[in-house]
Amino acid sequence: MHPFTYTRVASTREALDAGRRGGRYIAGGTTLVDLMRETVEQPEALVDISHLPLREVTATERGGLRIGALVRMSEAAAHPKVRTLYPVVSEALELSASAQLRNMATIGGNIMQRTRCTYFRDVTAACNKRDPGSGCAALEGHNRTHAILGTSDACVATHPSDVAVAFAALEATVHLLGPDGARTLRFADFLLRPGTTPNREQALRKGELITAVEIPALPRPLKSGYLKVRDRQSYEFALTSAAVALHIRAGVIREAKVAAGGVGTVPWKLPAVERHLIGQRPSAALWAEAAAKAADGARPLRHNAFKTELLTRTVERQLRVVGGTQ
């Protein structure tokens, strides 16, 4: 591990001053410390923000939910408002990592975590995300766990967060605070597809700090849930996953929010699936027809072509679980 300075701040003002000078924010540290140990990340200065007042879960005036950036994953998963209003978020969190990590990791840190691509974490391998212009070893290497959606010739790494898939499905917004003041971004605009600049993963400006993630109010009753398919039952990243939220009234689907994980370079919203559902009555045939659109635009690699069919089946199964067959 390379030498670095460490500063603990007590206010957002102190944090922004340190961030403006190039300091890297750290809270739970469950990802960044690992990357520093592996010399993938070599920050010169760490700014400990774990004591900032960003640890509340509150209802918004419009009926949504705002989750502070420093709320622990375990705290968010267990919060009564999260469990009652958006079980898809609770389930995604509970299916992430181990209990020990969930007790340390924060919501802000989770959506900021970097890919689990083995080539990214191997400093001897070519990786445009880690070393721009060096190439992408995964394109011709072992790419079974890599992305089939949103890829480019520069990068095919998946985004590893489970709860980010739920936030993408629910069309959340990210609240930011920086040297130029506060702003909000749609979750869909916060995480960036690789394109030709895979090293730029979030739409953050220099020194900006995540303060909260806000889930908008959605029509009630709302049924939601998260399904994660992986090689083993626990402590494993998704091969595919599906976050589904449905508003069904008078036997008709009025709202549908669907996103997939484990298959995209970012959490992958599925608007074609959503459009096929709205205005229809739940049925086994409908779930199959809608899910068939989940892999539209997929570009499978040598070892991960199975993900196309697996994604379709994952989405269909979760639509059936959440929506039933009235």
Automatic annotation (TrEMBL):
Database matches in PROSITE patterns: FAD_PCMH (PS51387)
The organism's place on the tree of life at top rank: Bacteria
Keywords for this protein: Oxidoreductase
Sections of the chain in a coiled coil: none
Ranges for domain FAD-binding PCMH-type: 1-220
Pfam family, one: FAD_binding_5
Oxidoreductase found in the keyword field: yes
Gene Ontology molecular-function annotations: FAD binding; oxidoreductase activity
Protein name: Xanthine dehydrogenase family protein subunit M
Source species of the chain: Streptomyces roseirectus
